[in-house]
Amino acid sequence: MSNEVPLDAIDREILFHLREGGRLTNVELAKRVGLTPPPCLRRVRRLEEAGVITGYRAVIDPAAVGRGLEVLIDVEIYANDRKSFEDFEKTVASYEEVIEFRRMYGRPDYFIRAAVADHAACEAFLTGKLSGLPGVQRFTSHLTMKTIKSVGA
């Protein structure tokens, strides 16, 4: 059974424009998708209520807030019990540097995307926070040279 919400061409157009600029007024959005404001607003509300649109947020320039260096980290853990997984996830998710955190199928067990100020901050995060966690078997870090595309960041 699928929980996919049926979307027509106008719904997809609404989503496209909101993804590009979530601060559009309803009047401007309606104009861009070829509707009058009331039916456009009804569609947006329906998409929100159905969970297709899950929120709106500001996109922040990481360099402007002292987080200009991004590091991608593969983590393997040796824990096999649920509590160890949950504790690891709760701890890592609480770190300010972590901007994306995923449990993976297969190897690695986890993927972490972290934003730090510089190489020294990266080293402090990896050795001071990540390597000391119970259950961590190994991690591999990759520094980002250039972000080519980032959707929803």
Note down, in words, how this protein is organized.
The protein is an alpha+beta fold and 153 residues long. It is built from five helices and four strands; from the N terminus they run H-H-H-E-H-E-E-H-E. It has helices spanning 9-20, 26-33, 37-49, 82-94, 119-130; strands at residues 69-77, 98-103, 110-116, 136-143. A four-stranded antiparallel β-sheet has the order 2-3-1-4. A hairpin with a 6-residue loop joins strand 2 (98-103) and strand 3 (110-116). The longest helix has 13 residues, at 37-49. The protein is elongated. The two termini are 30 Å apart. The model has no long low-confidence stretch (mean pLDDT 92).
Spans of at least 5 consecutive residues with low confidence:
none
pLDDT average, as an integer?
Answer: 92
Given the structure, what is the number of helices? 5
End-to-end separation in angstroms reads 30 Å
Helix-strand sequence: HHHEHEEHE
Fraction of residues in H or I helices: 25-40%
**Strands in their spatial order, largest beta sheet:** 2-3-1-4
Gross morphology: elongated
Task: Give the DSSP E fraction (strand runs of 2 or more residues).
Answer: 15-25%
Number of DSSP-assigned strands: 4
Question: What kind of sheet is the major sheet?
Answer: 4 strands, antiparallel
Q: How large is the radius of gyration?
A: 20 Å
Helix/sheet category: alpha+beta
